[in-house]
Amino acid sequence: MKKCPYCQKGNNDNEIQCWNCGEWFDTVSPPQQGNVVKPPKEKQSGIDSIDWQTKLGRILNEYRTPIISIIIIAALLFTILQRANFNKSVEQVTAIEPPKIDAPAVSATEPVSALESTPAQDTASALGSAKNLFNNAFVLCASGKCADPQKAIEYLNEAIKLNPDLAQAYNNRGNAYGNLGQHQQAITDYNEAIRLKPDYANAYSNRGIAYDELGEYQRAIEDLNEAIRLKPDYANAWNNRASTYLNHGNKNFGCPDAQKACELGYCKLLEFAKDKKYCP
User: Fold this and answer.
1) Per residue in 71-121, pLDDT tens?
2) Domains of the chain
3) Strand, coil or helix: what is 24?
4) Residue 32 carries which DSSP code?
5) Residue 229 and residue 207: Cα distance in Å, rounded?
6) Of 107, 130, 161, 258, whose CB count within 10 A is highest?
7) Which of helix, strand or coil describes residue 258?
8) Predicted TM-score (pTM) above 0.90
């Protein structure tokens, strides 16, 4: 009988491996085991194997609409608060876009004194041609808003060549440039009209509108003040000053001016401002 040196259990003499613990006796070398290579562990399938970027992408995709809504609302609130803080002292009228009346062209019946004072050879013919050109332009811009401003400018260019002292032609050409959005060029023409005719209330009013279009608010008000000083019953100047005040949120001055324009026969702006609750 052979005793196992490991577990001390008895084994037959011819045994080479313990029946109890399985250990090999020293007389025989146990068979060599090959190295066992563990197969690479496969990644698990399913949501547990998705990295955090993918999880975040899925969350953002699932809640995209509410997230965008929250961002938009936050941006709107921020804008409103900023605007409120900026204008604590003056109430803004940001929504107002009153029907700003374009400066009227000179009436066809308005005396054109400069035409009568042009000294030149063939005076009658030159004056007749200049007056015809002037009237052609007037037809295109009778309401102050030119149907074809470029054509009106062409007519007035020729009229001014024939009579460079015609203040009304410069004023009306300034209106046409204003219709084209060329406000600086319009101001140049209004300047010349005022130089030729210093008491030209219409040109002052028109230049005030052009300055306002260029963002020069104070100069606009100064010109409109001068137009009203020169011609206190000039409804269009009162209307334009009211419109300028209201566009800049100044109800205290804008509403009385709109009321005055209405008293003088132009009520469209006042009706608009009352409808929008800007004026009482």
Assistant:
1) 888 776 665 554 444 333 323 332 333 334 344 444 333 434 334 444 545
2) 104-197 (1.25.40.10), 217-280 (1.25.40.10)
3) strand
4) P
5) 15
6) 258
7) helix
8) no
